[in-house]
Amino acid sequence: MPRFLPIRRNLCVSVFLLSVCLLMQFQTSVSSARSGNTQFDIRQTQGSTISNRTPHWSPSGQYIAFESTRSGNPDIWIMDADGSNPFNLTQWDENANQSFSWSPDGRQIAFTSQWAGSFSSDIWLVNSDGTEPINLSAQLGLSDGYINCTPLWSPDGNSLAFFDDSPSKGDIKMVSLSSFDVTVLTGNLAQVDMEFTWSPDSQRIAVSSLVGSEGFRPAIWMIDVESLNSRDITISLQEQVGSEYTLKFIPYVDWSPTGSEIAFAVSYMGANLDIFVASTEGNGLTNLTSNLEGTSTYPVWSPDGSKIAFHSEHEGSFDVWVMDQDGANQMGLTSDNNTKEWFPAWSPDGKRIAFEMCYESCSFGGVNGPSDIWIMDADGSNKTNLTGQAPQ
To answer: How do strand 182-184 and strand 331-332 relate by DSSP bridges?
Structure first.
């Protein structure tokens, strides 16, 4: 089953969401269809300030999609898993293209297209060979100058969940890709939605949010996409943490492949972020990284559910780490205090990890500085720069 990574909302955030965050923070034949696309060598970039970011494996493990400014505009690119044959999937669109996800069959990519000079954005679908782009927001009547962003395919391929910033408040919505009916998943919840992730059976969505009319507290909602019944499991989590601690911020949530647990990063009592796991009912809360100094965040389960990859600044700068699902056998896979290695992505077979290496003058996520897509074996060996602009 393909893995669906927690999404970084990037520039596709309303001004209000930005202010809140600052207060806390294919199996398809690509090569045969590329003849109509301009070819680029994205590795001829020594000394540049090109940003290559957010690697996402295709469900087959044959390709890696990523965001890059190689063409001068933020675009979605696809390359073979060894870095060869890169091409610009969204070269026809002059807007900033980002925040994307693969369809489970690898035939399409859904992405966010941000209007030039604006926070407004639409969701598009495009075949993974770059053909037949469709403005889904326009088709749904949602291309109205507001924000539609961060599309995330359901594991069964039948629906897309996405964020829609309407005039009243932002909500997580779901569109059926057969009927194109739109369902508001969080309409009855007074909250600011931050991140979301599908359950492996496509029946529920976990939403990380901020709730409260006076001040905000973090919440993780479990929402049944059929009945729309919702439950805030954070109440149970707060009880387990104890009254001496206060949960502050939950930026990332990832569902275990078995569907029985979630991993998430949480800040409590103003401290750095740590990685916790809990059952989807909110029980069995465990801090897996309490022994690591600094922030540990962005947990991603391995495809078999036995391990969790994450990034941590325990050794002074962000590195990619891996640990057993219970927090045992923690191991830093990268170690370079002059760079930041973060946002790991497991290959579908669990044997390799792609990640982003960010160089000097780099902000969180690599937006304002040079960065590359790297790959390594799951034990940290055989590191390879796939986009090749490491400083000489």
So the answer is: unpaired
CA angle, 246 then 249 then 255, to 5°: 110
Please say if the pLDDT value at position 382 is more than 90. yes
Decide if 218 contacts 208 (C-beta within 8 A).
yes
Q: Which residues of 297-327 are buried (b: 16+ CB within 10 A; e: fewer)?
A: bbbbbbbebebbbbbbbbbebbbbbbbebeb
Mean of per-residue pLDDT scores for the chain = 82
Q: 87 and 96 in contact (C-beta within 8 Å)?
A: no
Query: What is the C-alpha to C-alpha distance for residues 92 and 95, in angstroms, rounded to an integer?
Result: 9
How many percent of the chain have pLDDT more than 90?
Answer: 52
Unique residue bearing structure tokens 């965001």: 67
* Residues 165 and 14 sit within 8 Å (Cβ to Cβ): yes
Tokens standing for residue 88? 């610009």
Q: Of 79-83, 264-268, 325-329, 371-375, where does mean pLDDT reach its minimum?
A: 264-268
pTM for this one? 0.86
Strand 273-279 and strand 286-287: the pairing is antiparallel
Give the closest residue to 273 by CA, choosing from 248, 254, 253, 255: 248
For 1-33+49-153, CATH number?
2.40.128
